[in-house]
Amino acid sequence: MRILLLGTAAGGGFPQWNCRSPNSLRAWSGDPAAPARTQTSVAVTLDGKSWVLINASPDLRSQILANPALWPAQGLRHSPITDVVLTGGEIDFITGLLTLREGHAFTLHGSAETLATIDANPIFGALPRDRVPRHAFELDTGFEVLPGLAVTAFDVPGKVPLYLEGQGSLAGRRGTTVGLEITGGGRRVLFVPGCAAIDDGLRARIDGCDILLFDGTLWRDDEMVTLGVSAKTGQRMGHVSMSGPGGAMAGLAGLRIGRRVFIHINTTNPVLAADTPERAVAEAEGWHIPVDGEELHP
Predict the structure, then answer these.
(1) From CA 5, how far away is CA 196, in angstroms rounded?
(2) Which pLDDT belongs to residue 224?
(3) Could you give the percent of the chain with pLDDT greater than 70?
(4) Which of 6-10, 224-228, 253-257, 293-297 has the lowest mean pLDDT?
(5) Per-residue model confidence (pLDDT) at position 230
(6) Partners of 3 in the beta sheet?
(7) Domains of the chain, residue spans
(8) pLDDT above 50: residue 170
(9) Residue pair 87/55 in contact by the 8 Å Cβ criterion
């Protein structure tokens, strides 16, 4: 199995287009210790010819341009992307689908909740069902996306997309936020770009995996409040923090994980810069902070 990290930042990318926080200013200035990153999406393959896209970020076109493995390779029109699997209906998970509207056929997989959100917006009619069939997956039931490559979606604590807030519970229904277990070639990878809390069930599912790609949105829960850029905590946004007694590093400590990788990292998070104390702490705890374009081999 090969995993291409097309983008590793949270919604808005790094630096976020309108952000002048100290962290973002380093990226704006071209500081080599704080390289720019696009919004989180990954691509997975077994044979290097057919690729499954996991979430379609708004930066998808630039991500394809930056990764020759995803370039057209035959005929007048072609793409090696055969399937797209969605973990939710967040803006930074689905808007890249519109980049894939120019005649290419692929299968779109998502929870019934996520696909209903897409179907309710007429702009996604640019992806007609006869060319882009929808597959509503059942949680905790595996399905094959490519020969030998299977995906199992599972529910994780989270919240509804920002544009659906005010229409019921912030937590949404089962299937609003999911993680993915990807298996193939004798390897098991967990992809969890958004998670509001770590419970025993999630720990048990993660334990023993070869690679964990996990929500690294904020370093601390009140990070954006303290900086003065937002009134929202990480918990209010549906994201567990990296640090602290309830954070990801503490909550996942002691599990058997081949490689721990933080993804979906917000523009304010100091770990994005290689020379910060926070980065040193994360790395000492065994976590990798990636850059766009990295390829992982479980």
Answers:
(1) 22
(2) 82
(3) 94
(4) 224-228
(5) 79
(6) 44, 296
(7) 2-296
(8) no
(9) yes
Alpha helices in the chain (DSSP H): 22-28, 60-66, 91-94, 112-119, 200-206, 223-227, 234-237, 248-251, 277-284
Task: Return d(Cα 227, Cα 257) in angstroms, integer.
Answer: 33
For the chain, the residue count is 298
Class of domain 2-296: alpha beta
Going by the DSSP 8-state scheme, the letter that residue 75 receives in this structure is S
Nearest to 269 by CA among 230, 232, 233, 242: 242
What is the C-alpha end-to-end distance of the chain, expressed in Å? 7
Residue tagged 């399937």 (tokens): 83
In the chain, the amino acid numbered 164 is L
Q: 134 by DSSP, 3-state: which?
A: strand
- Measured distance CA(298)–CA(293) in Å, rounded: 16
Give Cα 279 distance to the centre of its chain.
20
The Cα angle at residue 156 between residues 53 and 227, in degrees rounded to 5: 90
DSSP calls for 223-254: HHHHHTS-S--HHHHT---SSSTTSHHHHTTT
Strands (E), the chain: 2-7, 41-45, 51-54, 81-85, 107-110, 134-136, 143-146, 149-155, 178-184, 187-192, 211-215, 259-263, 287-288, 295-296
Sequence-separated (6 or more) residues with CB below 8 Å from residue 74: none
User: How far is C-alpha 216 from the chain's CA centre?
Assistant: 10
Alpha-carbon dihedral 109, 156, 183, 62, rounded to 10 degrees: 60
For residue 137, give the H/E element and its range. none
Residue 234 has pLDDT above 80, yes or no: no
